[in-house]
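Re: [help] complex structure
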Amino acid sequence: MPDQDAAPSANPLAVPSKIPIRITVNGVERELTLAPWTTLLDALRDHLDLTGTKKGCDHGQCGACTILVDGRRINSCLTLAVMTDGASVTTVEGLAKDGTLHPVQQAFIDHDAFQCGYCTSGQICSAVGLMAEGKAHSADDIRELMSGNICRCGAYPNIVAAIEQAMGQS
Amino acid sequence: MINFEYSRAGDVADAVRQIAADPHAKFIAGGTNLIDLMKYEIERPARLIDISRLPLTKVEETASGGLRIGALVPNSDLAYHPLIAERYPLIGSAILAGASQQLRNMASTGGNLLQRTRCHYFYDVATPCNKREPGSGCSAIAGVNRMHAILGTSEACIATHPSDMCVALAALEAKVHVAGPGGERVIAFEDFHRLPGDTPQRDTILEANEIITAIELPPRGFATNYTYIKIRDRLSYAFALISVAAALELDGDRIGEARLALGGVAHKPWRDKGAEAALRGRPATGATFKDAADVLLRGAKGYGHNDFKIELARRAIVRALTQAAHGTPQSQANKKIL
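Output below.
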């Protein structure tokens, strides 16, 4: 571990330069110039006004910020936006196609798989990622592989039922 | 998070050059532990060197019949890799017992080794912690220490290493391939992580200017008689109170080779060769397993709230060895422990 009391090698008062990146968000190419410490979550919410992705704990423990990067579900709160330069990002805003909800979104409505809704966009993106992984074959598997998404309202049985429905359709 | 500079490494040599040139820099790959710690300003690098694009993502068979795992293979890809599933299922099982699928998708193989040994006082910057601030004292020893270590502790630190994957790698005698300014070196897994002693600020023997390039597995995979049991306060997505990696080779009812490593009990993944010796050549029975547990726990020490972990470890070891001997590994989906 570096000696935290020593002065950094660079001038500590100088603000590090911003970095230009290009990412594809929900099929649209976006150019951003961001400070290195901007998380992908903050880039989406504060720089692209895509507020469907939620900030819950901001420490990778709750899953509310789950999105898909190059098709894989990740915690956007623990991802630096500059590290995703060139990536393709899908948020909850990008799941519906031509006015038709994604099967997972429809299943969440059909099964009333939420109460307050704050965790829901993360739950849905996580479930879409889970289905793409193809490793869940039972309700036990779904529960285990969705354990990174916390629902404070406790809608878990309905969330599992919704995902089972969506898996049955795919 | 404090402000920091950001740069990308073009190749391994460039990564080593960049970090050697800046003592306040850190590498970042998956970032799942580092960024979390930076948000609490526990880690405060002046520069992050992004190594996530280096070509260290292959899983390859070695000439000796083992496996070489690139340091940047994501934890989730490794857990489900066909060669792991076929020859080293203990590793896949251990990985799937840890974190969440989102974190496993982000976290790298090398980064898993380098996540900090930690406890809640390490995270609480309002309290003394020798690991965070050397010399400030340990808040856990006389504090709330339910999660803390029972083996290999010191007066300076009783935190535990939280990795599940590393417990399996310890049991399987993995090797850590490292590159630095002086070239490459290979570190035996048991030497890689440190006990706290009076320098708990150091978790591993890796130098600040070195980078992990690969993990090598020896040919022996114990694919038939193995298990990974993780006991925790909730059924998923929680650190271990106790975890046990057990791997056996059986000759009829007798134990040939044996491996036994524990997580959640020490500052490092805790493998005990004495306990393994107590298994070799003996019948695979509960009495043998109890003897091995006694050997492993002979120096165990509780700190109050975690006293129960000694008996819990004893029972978990016997259960794990029983599962391994029966060839009925623990399911990481259905958590019922049989």
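The radius of gyration of chain B is 19 Å.
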